[in-house]
Specification:
Low-confidence stretches: 1-29
Order of helices and strands: HHEHEHEHEEHHEHEHEEHHEHH
Distance between the termini: 55 Å
Mean pLDDT: 91
CATH class of the largest domain: Alpha Beta
CATH topology of the largest domain: D-Maltodextrin-Binding Protein, domain 2
Oligomer: single chain
CATH superfamily of the largest domain: Periplasmic binding protein-like II
Number of helices: 13
Radius of gyration: 22 Å
Length: about 325
């Protein structure tokens, strides 16, 4: 090709013109997407991304990835961290981006209501369960040391809190009694890391007798040979993790293809084989026990009401509990 013609083509590509001539992901061009996610699914994305790249829609697509505590990741994107796709622990972390004009308000108007994976809150214990922990009440017995992340940085920690509170309510306790149980529970907490992933690493290093965590974390680490067992309490909460496309334009179009893939049977099979409960039916690898008292955040009023009641910076129930224990509630 003549050098002057080549220069003209490159100029058109650089200015966003003549994109049909410059190619698309289906014709072998290179597109880069940035995934910003909470810490827990890092391992499964290491499998999902190559699987997507092996599809026609993913051909030529490269990825940059950032993982960390859900709340911190959400605030970072709001403050300028580039993202094309976000996968957070909590729907409010996506709604923060909606308010900032970065994600469309229709992000959850699909068949899975914006969720890409499900899980449940479980109690991870030492191999053989030496403290005989089988229920929420066992966590507040004398001598039991508990780990959970900090609910003011970690979305997983907020799921843990609402699982404990909601279980108490389902067991017949009043609101006041369920709040009293939370205060008692936090008296047994000996470590609060910034994320669920970090809390698990602290537990695996030998700290504490029990850890509140995602079911998928327990499953994946047992597969890797960790000396742990886990208990699914009879009453626990369904964890629903949201996924959204950020921004507009050509990158958003490719990001939408990645999101569609993550909700496909092929990708949901990978999620399930890594311990996540699928959000679509008919996934062959999905064999998960359903606890009899499984409930959702909506049964407790939804995240908007729950956030105000439990996590408001000045008046939240958990805010006051943490402050009384000298734990940081800074976001």
């Amino acid at each position: 090709m003549d050098r002057r013609l080549l220069a003209a083509v490159l100029t058109l590509c650089a200015t966003g013109l003549g994109l049909g001539a410059c190619g698309s992901s289906g014709s072998g061009s290179s597109t880069s997407l940035t995934l910003v996610a909470y810490s827990t699914p890092q391992g499964v994305f290491e499998k999902l991304i190559p699987a997507f790249q092996a599809t026609p829609a993913g051909k030529g697509v490269s990825f940059k990835r950032s993982y960390g505590p859900s709340g911190e990741q959400s605030r970072a994107v709001t403050n300028g961290l580039h993202a094309d796709v976000v996968n957070f622990s909590l729907a409010p972390d996506v709604e923060r981006l909606v308010k900032a004009g970065l994600v469309p308000a229709s992000w959850n108007h699909n068949a899975t209501h914006g969720f890409v994976s499900d899980s449940v809150v479980v109690i991870i214990v030492r191999k053989g369960n030496p403290k005989h922990i089988t229920s929420w009440s066992d966590l507040v017995k004398p001598g039991v040391q508990l780990l959970t992340p900090n609910p003011f940085t970690s979305g997983g920690a907020r799921w843990n809190v609402m699982a404990a509170y909601g279980a108490a309510r389902r067991e017949g306790r009043t609101d006041a009694q369920a709040q009293a149980y939370l205060r008692q529970l936090f008296q047994h907490v000996v470590s609060q890391d910034s994320s669920a992933r970090n809390a698990l690493q602290t537990f695996l290093a030998g700290r504490g007798d029990a850890l509140l965590d995602y079911e998928n974390e327990a499953i994946s680490d047992r597969k890797r040979g960790a000396a742990i067992d886990y208990v699914i309490p009879p009453d626990t909460i369904l964890i629903q993790s949201p996924l959204a496309v950020v921004g507009k334009g050509a990158a958003a179009s490719t990001a939408k293809k990645f999101v569609d893939y993550l909700l496909s049977p092929a990708a949901q099979t990978i999620w399930a084989s890594n311990g996540y409960r699928p959000v679509i039916s008919g996934v062959p690898a999905a064999h998960f026990p359903n606890p009899p008292g499984l409930f959702t955040i909506d049964s407790l009023g939804g995240w908007k009401a729950v956030t105000k009641q439990f996590f408001e910076p000045e008046t939240g129930i958990v805010t006051k509990i943490e402050q009384s224990l000298g734990v940081s509630t800074a976001k």
